[in-house]
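ARCHIVE CARD
Drawer: 12
Card no.: 0347
Subject: one protein chain, sequence and derived structure
Cross-reference: see card 0346
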Amino acid sequence: MTTRSPRKLITFDWAMKRLLRSKANFEILEGFLSELLGEDIRILEILESASNKESKRDKSNRVDLKVKNSKDELIIIEVQFDRELDYLQRILYGTSRVITEHQKESEAYATLVKVISVNILYFDLGQGTDYIYHGTTTFTGIHDHDKLELDIRQQKLYGKIQINNIFPEYYLIRINNFNRLATTSLDEWIYFFKNEEIKDEFKAKGIQKAKESFSLMSLPEEEQLAYARYQDNLRYEASMVESNYGLGRMEGKEEGIEIGIDIGIEKGIGIGIEKGIDIGVEKGIDIGKLDIAKRLVEHGMSIEEAAAISGIDAALLSQ
């Protein structure tokens, strides 16, 4: 008896770029968000954000959507592939920018919009063993260790019950850390993100609709070709990052040894070589990052995007 191979599905990031903006597919996004947030999510509309607009190049290591739900909350869903050491600061900036963009002049602070940041990460961020982390803001007493709560008047004014309902919330889904069977409905979505497969027995909200809609063979031929190009671009960018990162470290180490020998002559051979290697490795990594950025620009990416991906100052590419 032959085993039928699973149907080829497009990835979630591509679906975000092409399919999930349609109201006909809101059920899919609502299903994922409902399982993640633990409540029934209803999407009212997809809003424009800096990176969810169609691009002629169609190349990016980051894809995001900004949606408004039935509670007038704004939810940012982002898929990120390449490592960024300052990623936490970037999502903090992103939520802050969304808050200010949606605050009208002369409106009271009580009307500030609630923002939820959902991040699907295909790189290792920070240290930790879990594959889903949830961040909120709370205030704890220094002396009594009690939790500060809203009083009745504030609850009525803000329309919120808890203080953490006012501040942005963050979800970090670390795909590389998911190495298990899908034992919960949320796990079924994470399993799909990692394996690009949805099993017939999965019961999570919206996931079977995703299996139906994300079938690669059901897409028009033009869309299939565009998807293939998109996947090739992602692989190319990932290869450049890894290759240049490794090359930068190797070249930096070699240069560091040479510098270390010179320093060692003056201050002691052992200490000098060790210090020189550290300096050289750091310099080599910087060279590698700059090389990555230049190649991305050569392939049609803007200076700002290339600098953000490579983690360097855009001014270096303008020199």
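Annotation on reverse: Residues 59 and 233 are 6 Å apart (CA to CA). Confidence is low (pLDDT under 50) at residues 1-5, 51-60.
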